[in-house]
Design brief:
Layout lengths: L1 H19 L11 H37 L13
């Protein structure tokens, strides 16, 4: 537990150092339209990936429950009449 605390602090300290100390002037310009497009693309990818992973997990859980016999009920396709 103690080493996780220190490794987390080290990561935060290194991140702050990289972002603040190694700052260099940027000779570029991103207009608001391009920034908005980048933001929307990243947000769409993150949300789509989350939905995809959730649906995949639900499918795997349903399959495992059927293998174990816990998901078999009167409305299930594997139920006997």
């Amino acid at each position: 537990m103690r080493s996780n605390f220190w490794s987390w602090r080290l990561v935060v300290a290194l991140t702050v150092w990289v972002l603040l100390v190694n700052e260099r002037p940027a000779h570029a310009y991103i207009d608001p339209g391009t920034g908005s497009l980048i933001y929307q693309t990243i947000l769409t990818l993150v949300l789509g990936l989350g939905i995809g992973l959730r649906r995949t997990r639900e499918t795997i859980v349903r399959f495992v429950k059927r293998l174990g016999g816990r998901g078999v009920g009167p409305e299930s396709p594997g139920a006997e009449p």
